[in-house]
Write a structure and sequence with these properties.
By secondary structure, the chain is an alpha/beta fold. Helices cover 39% and strands 19% of the residues. It has helices at residues 11-24, 39-45, 63-70, 74-80, 85-97, 148-167; strands at 29-33, 54-59, 103-109, 124-131, 136-142. A five-stranded mixed β-sheet has the order 2-1-3-4-5, with helices on both faces. Helix 1 (11-24) packs parallel to helix 6 (148-167). It starts with 10 loop residues before the first helix and ends in a 10-residue tail after the last helix.
């Protein structure tokens, strides 16, 4: 996987770095995923021993699931749309409230091939990572029409990078804030 800065880092390597960062910070992690459908949680749990870090994962593909499982206000979805910075933040914060974790990451986007619009094209993905101490970092990516699988794979890697950015800003990869 090539990052936006041109470096090649595998999703597995990123997952290992996330697990190591969580262990250093003695933090459990939860995921709240829409367009990635559990791929972030799968990347983490694919690493042996991850159960000391991964508390749970929410796959909230529908708007109803975002509301019911994470407590995202329906009015927020109505106002900004499910694919928005506001909903991504609410998903991450909701995962924290509904899990025994100190860190949560969320992903919501349009993987395509359909479902896009001029304002929200295929390839638009919003991310948020939140911590129990109130820190929140957000990211928006516009991957373009890479194809559904490539968008989902890139989004998985960027979600993992965002957790690293949240926990260890000086160790952030891929040009994230």
């Amino acid at each position: 996987m090539t990052s936006p800065t041109g470096t090649t880092v595998t999703t597995e390597a990123l997952a290992v770095r996330v697990l190591e960062a969580c262990r250093r910070h003695k933090s459990m992690l939860a995921t709240a995923e829409s367009c990635t459908g559990g791929m972030v949680a799968a990347a983490l749990t694919g690493i042996a021993g991850s159960s000391d870090v991964v508390e749970r994962g929410f796959v909230t593909y529908s708007n109803e699931a975002k509301c019911e499982l994470l407590g995202v206000p329906a009015a927020l979805i109505d106002r900004y749309g499910a694919v928005s910075a506001e909903v991504a933040a609410a998903m991450a914060e909701g995962a924290l409230r509904h899990a025994r974790a100190f860190v949560a990451v969320s992903v919501t986007g349009i993987a395509g091939p359909g479902g896009g619009s001029e304002a929200k094209p295929v390839g638009l993905v919003h991310f948020a990572a939140a911590s129990g101490n109130g820190r929140l970092v957000r990211l928006e990516r516009r991957y373009g029409s890479l194809g559904r699988s490539a968008i989902r794979e890139a989004a998985t890697a960027d979600a993992l990078r965002l957790v690293i950015t949240l926990l260890d800003p000086d160790q952030a990869t891929g040009g994230l804030p």
